[in-house]
Amino acid sequence: MTTTTFAAAHIAGEARAGSAERVHAAVDPSTGQTIAEVPIADASMVHAAVVSAQSAFDNWADTTPVERDTMLNALADRLIDHQQELGDLEARNTGKPRGVAFDEVAGAAEQLRFFGGAARVLEGKAAREYVAGRTSFIRRDPVGVIGQITPWNYPLVMAAWKIGPALAAGNTIVLKPSELTPLSTLRLAELTADILPPGVLNVVAGDGSTGAALSGHPGIDMVCVTGSVGTGQHVLRAAAERVKRTHLELGGKAPVMVFPDADFARLAETLKVASFWNSGQDCTAACRLLVQDNAYDDLMAALVPAVASLRVGGPFEADAMDMGPVISAAQRDRVTGFIDRASSAGADIVIGGSATGPAGYFVEPTIIGNVGADAEIVRSEVFGPVITVQRFSDEQEALSMANGVDYGLSASVWTENLGRSLRLARKLQFGAVWLNDHLTVADEMPHGGYKMSGYGKDLSTYAIEDYTVVKHVMARID
Ligand code: NAD
């Protein structure tokens, strides 16, 4: 892989080379080796992409739902035709196990297919005479040109979550992937250039400066970001100037509420995945265990051996690994910094706790006990393979601990008591609540947060609605 492989942007279906002076290295996190250098698109390139999306808008908005469905399915087919290539590219750029990256390509394709079909079944209020002599009806019109900014944890899947609903609703797009993991999205743009009309989907590579140029551009009608709270706040400030619509999928700090009647074997098996999938770099990761005092020993007896059994290694190792590295040296140091400060403050490192591996950015799967509700590691998003365990005495205390953080993306409750689980599902301030499960996502169901985890939904028909403007049309009929 060389610098010439990747463009700075794909605009109106054509690759655009950027300046050789401003590049960002794409690194294989399992080795620390640079695998490509991708130019950073500057403000003039962002402008060209926005103009391209503006010129494509009217014709794209005029396509019928079935035409958009057909094209979204063609995009999905193209991903599947290149599943191995895209999966390998993703595995190399993120460090996740090769088989997982391969499956993610299939997931992204399936999500595009869902949104294609969903474009054809948007629902609305009945047209009716709400005022005598006048017929009212609702239109759901596309918003216009959408600026979309994606993170590094699931690069291709996050692109599909953004592209699918926006195109299904009749919008055109300028999408910016993370500077750490731009390769699969740039390749997606290249592979699909002959499917969509020129300008409908434009991709610009770059860092926060490119994202800022995009969110502040006056030709962008709506800005959508999946990323950290800080980035969401930057985007909100940029959007305020022209009162742009925003759609924010930000961080999480998911509580896992464990009661003594939980199925501990199932819980431990679930957490091996839910806490450590993608090396814990998942906004819904089960990272904050809350356990009733008298269930603490049962939980640990099941959990510690399960976590100890996780296999950590690079994406292309002969045996399939459960977990790869974290994304960068900075992220490794950030994660181990949280662990070290927790340890210095008196927390117990039950298992793991250190960086590991001869090369690359690996962190051991880690369980931390004896932490208080105010501890930094309990309140901040670590975004690594780390779980904390806290004790509670009763349901009310558990609820206030669960809700007592700034985030509100997802939570789970583990009990056989149906009344308790439904009571808690009602009171938990999180956009997704699992009962005796954690992490499972369905394309048909919405994903999005409460509180500082942001607002707006990815996946489901709610996502398409977010990419539309509701318009009331009233006609005199008397
Ligand atoms: P990040 O905020 O550092 O970067 C996200 C994207 O924003 C990148 O493309 C980046 O280049 C861009 N960006 C950075 N500064 C910007 C600015 N000033 N203006 C516009 N764009 C800017 O996030 P990350 O480190 O890539 O991803 C991890 C974060 O994403 C975590 O907080 C995680 O919880 C969150 N996340 C949330 C969800 C969700 O659905 N809620 C899903 C995945 C990740």
Automatic annotation (TrEMBL):
The keyword Transmembrane does not apply. The active site is at E249. Keywords: Oxidoreductase. Residues 22-473 form the Aldehyde dehydrogenase domain. The keyword Oxidoreductase applies. PANTHER family: ALDEHYDE DEHYDROGENASE-RELATED (PTHR11699). Belongs to the aldehyde dehydrogenase family. This is Gamma-aminobutyraldehyde dehydrogenase. It comes from Arthrobacter mangrovi.
